[in-house]
Structure formats: structure tokens, C-alpha cells
Amino acid sequence: MHSLSWTTRVISRALRSGFSTLLETASNATANVNSASKQRPHFVSVVCGFPKDFLTSKYKPGKYGEDSWFKTSTTNADVLGVADGVGGWRNYGIDPGEFSSFLMKTCERLVHCVNFNPQRPVNLLAYSYCELLEQKKPILGSSTACVLVLNRENSTVYTANIGDSGFMVVRQGEIIHKSEEQQHYFNTPFQLSLPPPGHGHNVLSDSPDSADTLSFSVKEGDVILVATDGVFDNVPERLLLDVLKECEGVTDPVKLQMTANSLALMARSLSFDSEFMSPFAINARRNNINATGGKPDDITVVLATVAM
Fold it and tell me: Which of 2, 136, 229, 298 is the most exposed place for a label (fewest CB within 10 A)?
């Protein structure tokens, strides 16, 4: 059982992280007043998360351990994204977080370029990956990624997902859309990669074109969760739904932040519960691996509601 002092530090970090996100959210909400008056949808969004090695990891904006995220807006679109650096690279002296962080920072920058197409989030992943490959100092490693775009012009969300990060959309107490994991085999997701010289034949590397893409209309009050596998591997779908349906129609960023904090804390707690039959353990048993308990991992929760 975690000590009271550890729990206090965890909550303090979550609230500090959430507060910095909340300031940005409030600013975005103000900027969206004109859009709201024209009855165009926009996101009210917040973020919370934890690195797996909480006590030794240093907080950096846009990162939780090897996870990275971004959220940004233009006049006609709101964009959310998460990426999860593949941790196995640490065995080779490579920081997996650098790969995922570069992808997300580049995606965020490209959203504000004149040729950004809100109906093609897969282009953000493709162009970001190309920029990574062209760096003079190689950024080695690999990462999963999920990018979701709300096109305010037609009230439609467009998604691109590669690997086992993903999203979920809740309306009227039901899950109406969700991403599907892309796995080569158990616990080996699709991933964008740049291996060290001479190791290419030993490393899985998928093209951005292999990303799963979806589009669907949204309505006022819809709840959208974008998260890394640290959430989906540890929190059963029924528990996710119980939490998410409680914030349908919520446009108060403070209340939304409290929900994101609660969800991230739940995922972290279950990830270290050795007796809990987590979604990860259930999938392991389906693959003839005798496993019980959660899967300790970095946790990233990007939570949004659709407002007018």
C-alpha cells in the first residue's frame, strides 16, 4: 500500500500539472467565444498524467515520462494528440521520450502552417515523421501515436491512430466511437521507428500510411478521451465509461480537470495493483501468458468535451 506522503506528492503533482493546463484551457475558451456565438463546435480540453517512475522523473511540459502530448487550436480546428515512446530502447542507451516528444511538438507546429488540412490528421503524422528522419542529429527510437482533429466548419472529427494509444467518444452514457489497437502480436504495437545504423532488420517500423483513420460527426456535450496505453491497459472499459459519462455536457474546465485527474490517478493506482485483473492481464491470458495485475506504465489523459 502506498504511504500517505507518497499519495500526497502524487496528488500535488497532478494538481500542479492540471493547473498549468487549466490556464491554457481558460485562455482557449475565451478565444472561442466568437465561434460559440456562431454555433460552431469547439473543444474544452484538459490534460493530466504521470510518469511510471514518478519519484525520479522530472516534470517537462508536454511529457509524462516517455509519453508526450499536445493540444492546440486554429480558427477552424481543435487538435489533440498523444504519443508513447517504446520503452525497450532504454536498453540501448536511447531515451524513448525524445522520439515521441519530437513527433508531438512537430505536429503542433504543423497545425499552424498554411497548408494544414483538418480532414487529414494522418498528414500531420507523416510530415512530422519525415522531419524526424531528416534531422542532422538522428532521433533514434520508436513511438505509437494518435491525433484527433475537430473540424469546426462541418462538426466532424477526423482521427489517425498508429499502435495502441487511442481515443474513445461517449454520448448519452454510451461509447459511440473508439479506436482499435494495431498490434503485430501481443504487446508489440504498430510504431513509427528510426533504429540505429545496422539494426534496421531487427526493428519493427511501420509507415504513417498504415495508421487507422476514422471520421464521424460530433454533437454538443460529447465527451472525448485521447490517451496512451497506460490508461487502456489498466482501466477496464466499463470503468472508463462510468467516469466519462459523468462529464457529458461539462464546459467548466475546473470540473473537467477534476475528472481528468481522477481518471489518471485511477489508471496509475490500478497499474501497480498486483492482484487486479487488468485489460492487459486479460489480453495476456488470451495469448497463453499467465499474467495477473496491472501494467506499470506512463499515464497520459487528454480529456475534452464538445461545446457550442
Answer: 136
Average confidence score pLDDT of the chain = 90
Range 42-307: architecture per CATH? 4-Layer Sandwich (3.60)
Q: Which residues contact 194 (CB under 8 A, 6 or more apart)?
A: 99, 132, 133, 138, 139, 140, 141, 142, 205
Which residues make Cβ contacts (< 8 Å) with residue 146, sequence separation at least 6? 81, 82, 83, 159, 160, 161, 162, 163, 165, 166, 167, 179, 226
Q: Which three cell numbers stand for residue 176?
A: 459511440
In 42-79, which positions are buried (b, 16+ CB within 10 angstroms) versus exposed (e)? bbbbbbbbbbbebeebeeeebbbbbbbbbbbbeeebbb
The H or E element that residue 75 is part of is: none
Is the pTM higher than 0.85?
yes
Q: Hey, what's the torsion of the CAs at 112, 306, 69, 159, to 10 degrees? A: -80
The answer to whether 96 and 67 are in contact (CB under 8 A) is no
Task: Check whether 15 has a pLDDT greater than 60.
Answer: no
Instruction: Tell me: pLDDT of 107 over 80.
Output: yes
The sign one gets for the Cα dihedral 14, 16, 18, 21 is negative
Check: CB of residue 216 under 8 Å from CB of residue 285.
Answer: no
Between CA 231 and CA 40 the distance in angstroms is 31
